[in-house]
Design brief:
22% helix; 8 helices; 384 residues; single chain; Elongation Factor Tu (Ef-tu), domain 3
Length: 384
């Protein structure tokens, strides 16, 4: 059954104890205290330190907590509360009573230039899918594209596991089974109220322009002039700070909803600028564009990423949340530990939150799901 019951209760438990048996006992104990036995849904996040004992960990969770649905993944950073436990031993457990999720096991199978997606229930789906995948064996970008065709009303939030040096090194949890490929998911119906937030951490610079000529991921003209000419003029007119940020890494924002009169940060799908074709005056970006799309260049820094996430969360007061943040953020971007986790707690109130750092994050922009990078993607569960 996919569905809700009554009065949801949540827990986001964390143990950084180096002994696996002690660590799993601590998180299960915290969960029992908060949500009781047999919660309707649970997610488990485990650092590489505990990976060789993952079978034991899942057995303990099942035998003592008895969740009706359990999925999880290995990650180099376990998130719970205001803590991002990076590089050390950690086990995180999110659980909820009063609602029910359905675990799914997904795979993408090559079929010519595209991939087929297997494992989703055959019925038409809506609601929310929490998706955790292996970056080496699961084509997440093609999977969300397939889901857009087969389940257009389904919001997908999650990410690709991190900390695995190569294929077969990471682990995914599906009830009591462990996998080293594909993806797992936790499916909630529409009677479980979930709000999604995707903070891409960039801010626009210059002006938006319509793509007047281009093909694939190559923008040849913006507003009737060569795209590279537009870009060079914008950089020349920027202040010193923006020029310095553009030199470190420039991004292109593609407007998702063209019906809006004005565009702000949350209206763009952010993709990297990969290079230029100087002779043709073209700019190459990390996604396809169509003639008629509106594009505006963006930059990213710690201040922009902080302001973007804060603004998107400022009016949210959920009962709990799941946070999937890029492993390229953290101290690498912000210079301090626990940035995203502590900001989420300080902004939405100190409610149970858990999650992981990812090597690719999934979440909707507008009404379409995408695979992102350098993003914080959240699923926020209502209190009732």
């Amino acid at each position: 059954m996919i569905g809700g019951e009554s009065s949801p209760c949540f827990v986001g438990a964390l143990s950084e104890h180096p002994n696996t048996r002690v660590a799993v006992a601590e998180v299960v104990g915290q969960a029992l205290d908060c949500v009781g036995r047999a919660p309707g849904a649970a997610l488990l996040f485990v650092s590489p330190h505990h990976l060789r004992h993952l079978g034991e960990i899942t057995s303990v969770v099942h035998d003592i907590l008895e969740p009706r649905a359990l999925v999880g993944a290995s990650t180099d950073t376990v998130i719970a509360g205001s803590r991002e436990a990076a590089s050390g031993p950690a086990i995180g457990l999110w659980a909820a009573s009063g609602l029910t999720g359905e675990p799914v096991r997904l795979r993408t199978l090559p079929e010519g230039e595209v991939a087929t997606l297997t494992g989703m229930p055959p019925a038409r789906l809506d609601g929310t899918l929490i998706l955790l995948g292996d970056p080496f064996t699961f084509a997440a970008d093609q999977a969300v594209h397939r889901l857009a065709e087969t389940a257009p009303d389904l919001a997908v939030v999650g990410g690709m596991l991190s900390g695995a040096p190569g294929p077969g090194a990471g682990r995914l949890i599906h009830d009591e089974n462990l996998f080293d490929d594909g993806a797992v998911g936790l499916l909630f119906g529409t009677d479980v109220s979930v709000t999604t937030v995707v903070s891409q951490g960039c801010r626009p610079i210059g002006e938006p322009f319509i793509v007047t000529r281009g093909h694939g991921n190559v923008i040849e003209e913006l507003g009737g002039r060569p795209a590279l000419e537009r870009l060079e003029a914008m950089i020349a007119e920027s202040d010193d700070d923006d020029r310095a940020l553009a030199a470190k890494g420039l991004h292109a924002g593609i407007v998702i909803d063209e019906s809006k009169a004005e565009f702000t940060q949350g209206d763009f799908l952010i993709r990297g600028v990969l290079g230029a074709r100087t002779a043709a005056g073209a700019v190459v970006i990390g996604d396809r564009v169509e003639v008629g799309d509106t594009v505006q260049f963006h930059v990213r820094d710690a201040a922009s990423a902080t302001a973007d996430l804060t603004g998107m969360l400022s009016d949210r007061r959920p009962g709990s949340g799941l946070l999937f943040t890029c492993n390229g953020r953290g101290e690498r971007l912000f210079g301090v530990p626990d940035h995203d986790a502590s900001l989420v707690q300080d902004t939405i109130g100190h409610v149970p939150v858990a999650g992981m750092a990812c090597s690719g994050e999934i979440g909707p922009v507008g009404d379409r799901n995408f695979l992102h990078g350098f993003t914080a993607s959240l699923a926020l569960f209502d209190r009732s």
